[in-house]
């Protein structure tokens, strides 16, 4: 942990934290500065409208470490395009100095060393300070939550999302949209939404039986801010019943529904909207494609794929803003709207350095109140790690390797499968692993660890299917997760091929033998979308494994060979 | 290793999943198109076909078709063992030439709508609908 005083000694490129009206690299704004709260918040208020975007918090109330991906491959038209740029290439693209705070916040290299220097990120009491500062500049700024808020922690699981609802209500959002929220079950979601003091939006949330817009989730809401009529349109995650268990919310249907999006944009424009904002949980590449098909959207606030971009991406006249995940970033977008037109913008992706930004005391108190009943369970130390534990990346992360090891040993399996979700904070080498840490990477309402037999042929079908959800060159056929993680199994993947042809050389690592298509293998996994899945909860499996290890150590994993990039 | 009853309940996982790879176009679909058009040329465009990119449930996929001024619209699921889904006929008094229904898809495949226009010409639209195991949302 570093002191606030130490932080003042850290120099950074201010350019990497500034947006501007117009595009280009921020390097031209470069100036060496010390990192302070004032500088993180510094913003030359612009135009007449301010938007504040936060998304994919995954119930992270407290500061955490979060390592950005090393592997994030784009395919088709998005090959090599942001957000599919990582590491040093990302820093060069945005003019970020090596070793700078932005290096730490936005890229993966030297993560452990930089994490020790710069400390944890996020914490909703720090986020509250940033929001309050923006509201001090612009009292009527709109705060928009992109969803994946009521999921992802011990307290969120135990309270069925109530902890997050209570804390977010203290931040006073103006609207939100949804994804993992629905895995609380449709009855719970309806109960919460009925009492929400802000708009719950989704133009693509339909009543399944009637194939009509669902009454509980209006498509849009109008706001009058800065003398401007603003329409905020919600876009929930399109593939909820496919990527998550549809049986938990059987009354609802989703989909991209871009033809309906166009109809809604036309409707709000005809009702006098001067600025149209889409609060989206599509994922970045889907938003980019949608921006090229639907005309009339000024700003897409993009969530789901957990990308953090220091500049908006422009598609036609639409700007797309990506604000990261796990409470690590807040985006501020100031807009100049005149005569019914967006004339310019100024943008800043604000990293929430938790040792630099003063927590808001009121919100700290609300957070502590949510956690107090569970304090002992949360803080119980289960073990320790010698390795950096992280998840994000297209293929295996060390957290997933550890979870797969736990599944193989605790469930006596040949092969383990772990879902390619993108949430879950990191743990530094030498850190204790608490029960809270385990829940942060496993918590869900369908976390039972199944044990089953699959033929070699079916294992390949699973990998091909998930691979196509990630590497189909048309973003509309992507679901926005990463590749299913595997333990005990090696394979090759050529991401440039078609479904059915990407995966080859499946190998059972314990014997070194090729997987036999007709032979049965015992597979342990978790997060099955099928109703009636049985087994112990995954967090109990992982806890038991870590307890037996005492100190865990995760060896480098090169069992997935990737080509066609 | 032995399976307990509890463990084996998870085996349902694979039930429909062997059918996720793209289905090839069934030869019967060409015959159905020829029967509908009488072998006339079919142009692209002029037909609205709305279908999900990824089916939430392959057993009941909502679709809608429309073509202004059409006298009939035929819908085909090109990869199904029986590709013919429906032909909607519109009389002169029809307020609009649109129809919605739900169809069953055996796997990832192309759904095609062919409209017979009032002047006897034919137009088509198609849409790829993916049927997937799913289960890995970020």
Can you characterise this structure?
- The complex is a heterodimer of chains A (565) and B (138).
- By secondary structure, chain A is an alpha/beta fold.
- Chain A has 2 domains: 4-369, Purple Acid Phosphatase, chain A, domain 2; 380-563, 5'-nucleotidase,  domain 2 (Alpha-Beta Complex).
- In chain A, 29% of the residues lie in helices and 23% in strands.
- Chain A has 18 helices and 28 strands.
- In chain A, strands 6-5-4-3-16-17 form a 6-stranded mixed beta sheet, with helices on one face.
- In chain A, helix 8 (162-171) runs antiparallel to helix 13 and helix 16 (435-442) crosses helix 18 (538-549).
- The longest helix of chain A has 16 residues, at 456-471.
- Chain B is mainly beta and 138 residues long.
- Chain B has one domain: SoxY domain (Immunoglobulin-like, Sandwich).
- In chain B, 11% of the residues lie in helices and 36% in strands.
- Chain B contains 2 helices and 8 strands; from the N terminus they run ααββββββββ.
- Chain B has helices at residues 5-8, 27-37; strands at 42-44, 48-50, 61-66, 70-77, 84-89, 98-103, 109-117, 122-129.
- Chain B has a 5-stranded mixed beta sheet with strand order 1-8-7-4-5, with helices on one face. In chain B, strands 2-3-6 form a 3-stranded antiparallel beta sheet, with no helix packed on it.
- The longest helix of chain B has 11 residues, at 27-37.
- The chains are: A alpha/beta (565), B mainly beta (138).
Mean pLDDT of chain B comes to: 83
Largest interface: A-B, 60 and 35 residues
Instruction: Give the end-to-end Cα distance of chain A, rounded to a whole number of Å.
Output: 38 Å
Number of helices of chain A: 18
How many H/I helices of chain B?
2
Query: How many strands, which pairing sense, and closed or not: the largest β-sheet of chain B?
Result: 5 strands, mixed
CATH superfamily of the largest domain in chain A: Metallo-dependent phosphatases
> Strand arrangement, largest sheet of chain B?
1-8-7-4-5
Spatial strand order of the main sheet of chain A = 6-5-4-3-16-17
Rg over CA atoms of chain B? 18 Å
CATH level 1 name of chain B: Mainly Beta
Residue share in β-strands of chain B: 35-45%
Oligomeric category: heterodimer
Low-confidence parts of chain A: 1-33
C-alpha-based Rg of chain A, rounded: 23 Å
Mind telling me the CATH superfamily name of chain B? Answer: SoxY domain
Order of helices and strands of chain B: HHEEEEEEEE
Strand content of chain A: 15-25%
Mean pLDDT of chain A: 93
How would you sum up the global shape of chain A?
globular
């Amino acid at each position: 942990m570093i002191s606030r005083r130490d932080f003042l000694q850290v120099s950074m490129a201010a350019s990497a934290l500034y947006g501007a009206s117009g595009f280009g690299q921020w390097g031209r704004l470069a100036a060496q500065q010390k990192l302070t709260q004032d500088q993180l918040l510094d913003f030359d208020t612009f135009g007449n409208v301010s938007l504040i975007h936060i998304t994919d918090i995954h119930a992270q109330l407290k500061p955490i470490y979060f390592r950005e991906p090393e592997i994030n491959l784009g395919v088709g038209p998005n090959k090599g395009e942001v957000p599919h740029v990582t590491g040093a290439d990302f820093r060069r693209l945005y003019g970020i100095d090596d070793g700078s705070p932005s290096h730490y916040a936005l890229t993966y290299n030297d993560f452990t060393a930089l994490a020790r220097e710069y400390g944890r990120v996020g914490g909703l009491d720090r986020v509250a300070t940033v929001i309050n500062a923006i509201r001090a500049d612009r009292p009527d700024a709109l705060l928009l939550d992109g969803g994946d808020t009521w999921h992802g922690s011990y307290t969120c699981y135990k309270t069925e999302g109530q902890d997050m609802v209570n804390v977010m209500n203290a931040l006073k959002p103006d609207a939100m949209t949804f994804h993992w929220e629905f895995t609380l079950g449709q009855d719970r979601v309806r109960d919460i939404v009925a009492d929400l003091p802000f708009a719950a939006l989704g133009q693509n949330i339909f009543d399944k039986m009637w194939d009509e817009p669902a009454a509980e989730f209006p498509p849009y809401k109008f706001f009058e801010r800065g003398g401007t009529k603003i329409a905020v349109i919600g876009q929930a995650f399109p593939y909820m019943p496919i990527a998550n268990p549809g049986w938990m919310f059987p009354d609802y249907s989703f989909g991209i529904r871009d033809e309906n999006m166009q109809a809604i944009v036309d409707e709000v424009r005809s009702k006098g909207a001067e600025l149209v904002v889409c609060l989206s949980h599509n994922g970045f590449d889907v938003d980019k494609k949608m921006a090229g098909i639907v005309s009339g959207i000024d700003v897409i606030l993009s969530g789901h794929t957990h990308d953090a971009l220091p500049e908006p991406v422009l598609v036609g006249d639409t700007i797309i803003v990506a604000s990261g995940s796990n409470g690590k970033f807040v985006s501020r977008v100031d807009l100049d709207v005149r005569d019914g037109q967006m004339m310019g913008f100024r943008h800043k992706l604000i990293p929430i350095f938790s040792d630099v930004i003063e927590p808001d005391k009121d919100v700290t108190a609300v957070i502590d109140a949510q956690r107090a009943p569970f304090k002992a369970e949360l803080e119980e130390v289960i073990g320790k790690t010698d390795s950096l534990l992280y998840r994000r990346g297209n293929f295996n992360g060390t957290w997933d390797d550890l979870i797969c090891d736990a599944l193989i040993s605790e469930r006596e399996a040949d092969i383990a499968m772990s879902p390619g979700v993108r949430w879950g904070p990191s743990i530094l080498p030498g850190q204790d692993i608490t029960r809270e840490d385990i829940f942060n990477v496993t918590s869900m309402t369908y976390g039972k660890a199944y044990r089953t037999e699959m033929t070699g042929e079916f294992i390949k079908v699973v990998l091909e299917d998930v691979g196509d959800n990630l590497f189909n060159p048309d973003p509309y056929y992507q679901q926005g997760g990463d590749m299913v993680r595997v333990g005990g199994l090696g394979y090759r993947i050529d991401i440039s091929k078609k479904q059915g042809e990407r995966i080859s050389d499946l190998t059972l690592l314990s014997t070194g033998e090729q997987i036999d298509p007709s032979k049965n293998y015992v597979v342990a996994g978790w997060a099955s979308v099928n109703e009636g899945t049985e087994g112990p909860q995954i967090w109990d499996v992982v806890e038991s494994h870590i307890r037996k290890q005492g100190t865990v150590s995760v060896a480098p994993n090169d069992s997935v060979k990737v080509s066609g990039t | 290793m032995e399976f307990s009853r509890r463990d084996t309940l998870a085996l349902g996982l694979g039930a429909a999943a062997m059918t996720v790879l793209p289905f090839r176009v069934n030869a019967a679909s060409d015959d159905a198109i020829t029967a509908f058009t009488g072998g006339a040329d079919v142009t692209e465009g002029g037909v609205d076909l709305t279908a999900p990119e990824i089916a939430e449930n392959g057993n009941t996929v909502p679709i809608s078709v429309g073509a202004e001024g059409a006298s009939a619209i035929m819908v085909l699921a090109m990869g199904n063992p029986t590709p013919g889904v429906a032909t909607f006929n519109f009389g002169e008094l029809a307020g609009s030439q649109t129809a919605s229904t739900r169809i069953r898809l055996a796997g990832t495949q192309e759904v095609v709508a062919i409209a017979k226009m009032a002047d006897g010409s034919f137009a088509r639209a198609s849409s790829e609908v993916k049927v997937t195991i799913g289960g890995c949302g970020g």
